[in-house]
Amino acid sequence: MILVLFGPPGSGKGTQSEMLLQSGNFVHISTGDLLRAEVASGSEIGLKVKEIMSQGGFPSDDLIMTLVQGQLDTHKGKQIIFDGFPRTLNQVLAFDALLGVQRENVSIVINLQVDLDQLVDRVSGRFSCKGCGAVYHDRNKRPLQDGVCDRCQGTEFIRRADDQPEVLKNRVRTYLDQTQAVCDFYRQKDLVVDLDASKDPVSVNNDLKISLAQAGFKI
Ligand code: AP5
Ligand code: MG
Asked: Which of these, 110, 136, 137, 153, could form a disulfide with 125 (CB 3.0-4.6 Å)?
């Protein structure tokens, strides 16, 4: 089954994915994470996309679909969380075609709704563990022990290059211009459930699990 976690930058897609993964019943595919891994590895793809991502723009749909196809083949038949994908109408159509080959469908689209002015605070306070990628926030979600990752006990933390306020503005603009239409598309197919994502992460996760259980997911 396929869950599309949808929402603007900083709405909590990664945080909610991480919480769902704790049950062991889901696989997580984040196109942002896949792209950042390419950049970190210095691969040909990484070199191509680094500049685009650092300005808050989108790499080509073809490139995104190549990354997604590889992941879909690997995780065929599992309960998959798509985080940050699809993000353009072209990606929606290409995704439908790929899923059709596997006789799969998008089962539900969860739309994480947060006022845009909350996003600046969330994104500018975000940092993550360099070792395992666990995500924290300067105020909302600090590690239990300052300077030590809860998950892997790593002591090095990083901030994303695209989390600076000027770049965030571009990311939000790109979201409004290109990505919101994806939600409208799925809404017409009656697949969208809107969640109030301005609540605390645990409350959002409880609401999310209720919707997923109703849609037939094993939580
Ligand atoms: P991507 O990595 O997908 O970034 P994004 O969509 O901009 O979303 P974020 O990861 O910034 O936010 P999030 O919703 O995951 O929030 P999080 O849980 O971390 O994409 C990055 C870039 O890659 C794009 O700009 C583009 O260039 C490229 N890209 C990726 N996919 C693409 C595609 N399909 N096509 C084309 N290009 C693509 O939370 C944020 C912070 O808030 C954290 O600190 C967290 O602790 C805190 N927080 C979370 N929930 C709450 C809560 N409920 N209350 C208070 N604080 C909270
Ligand atoms: Mg994320």
From this structure: 137
Through-space distance between the first and last CA atoms of the chain, rounded to whole angstroms:
12
* Dist. CA 129 → ligand 2 center (Å): 14
* Helix%, strand%, coil% for the chain, nearest 5: 50, 15, 35
**Does residue 188 lie in a domain region?**
yes
Give the pLDDT of residue 117: 87
Asked if residue 110 has its Cβ within 6 Å of ligand 1, the reply is no
Q: Rounded CA gap, 193 and 72, in Å? A: 23
How big is the chain by its Cα radius of gyration, in Å?
A: 17
Q: Is the pTM of this model over 0.90?
A: yes
In a domain, 219, yes or no: no
Rounded CA gap, 90 and 127, in Å?
A: 31
Q: What is the pLDDT of residues 116-169, one digit of tens each?
A: 889 999 999 999 999 999 999 999 899 999 999 999 999 999 999 999 999 999
Point out the ligand 1 atom lying closest to the alpha carbon of residue 18.
18
Q: Which domain holds residue 75?
A: 2-114+177-214
Ligand 1 atom nearest to CA at 87: 34
When divided into structural domains, the chain yields a total of 2
